[in-house]
């Protein structure tokens, strides 16, 4: 028998995933990644407003971070713009600390 999922994708603009938020998973991450550049940049600007946006919920901080890493949505991605992780006590991580300046 499979165990219940410990992290779940709530929103992903590229895959047109837009599930209702699920606060039964107490940890939440929102990640923004820039377009891959090159010829794809024009298509991304038209289709996705130039950015990939992801929202994931997890039962624990570790499971949430693991899910992001496995899917390539972690801060080490060269396309990384920002990450905000919240939990029952509020903001846990905010990278970068200040939002990036608009171009």
Structure description:
The chain has a six-stranded antiparallel beta sheet. Helix content is 18%, strand content 37%. The protein has 103 residues and is α+β, with helices and mostly antiparallel strands. The longest helix has 10 residues, at 61-70. The protein has helices at 40-48, 61-70; strands at residues 7-12, 17-18, 27-34, 51-58, 80-87, 90-95.
Helix segment tally: 2
Share in β-strands: 35-45%
CATH architecture: 2-Layer Sandwich
Fraction of residues in H or I helices: 10-25%
CATH class: Alpha Beta
Low-confidence stretches are: none
Rg estimate, integer Å: 14 Å
Biggest sheet statistics: 6 strands, antiparallel
Order of helices and strands: EEEHEHEE
Give the N-to-C terminal Cα separation.
50 Å
Number of domains: 1
Structural class designation? alpha+beta
Average pLDDT score:
83
CATH topology, anyone?
Answer: Alpha-Beta Plaits
Give the spatial strand order of the biggest sheet.
Answer: 2-1-4-3-5-6
The outline comes out as globular
Count the E strands: 6
Described by its quaternary structure, the protein is single chain
């Amino acid at each position: 028998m499979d165990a219940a999922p410990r992290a779940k994708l709530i929103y992903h603009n590229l895959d047109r995933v837009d599930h209702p938020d699920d606060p039964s998973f107490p940890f939440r991450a929102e990640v923004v990644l820039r377009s891959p550049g090159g010829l794809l940049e024009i298509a991304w600007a038209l289709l996705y407003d130039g950015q990939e946006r992801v929202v994931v919920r997890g039962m624990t901080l570790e499971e949430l971070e693991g899910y992001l890493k496995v899917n390539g949505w972690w801060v080490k991605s060269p396309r990384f713009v920002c990450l905000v992780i919240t939990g029952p006590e509020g903001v846990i991580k905010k990278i970068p600390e200040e939002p990036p300046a608009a171009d």
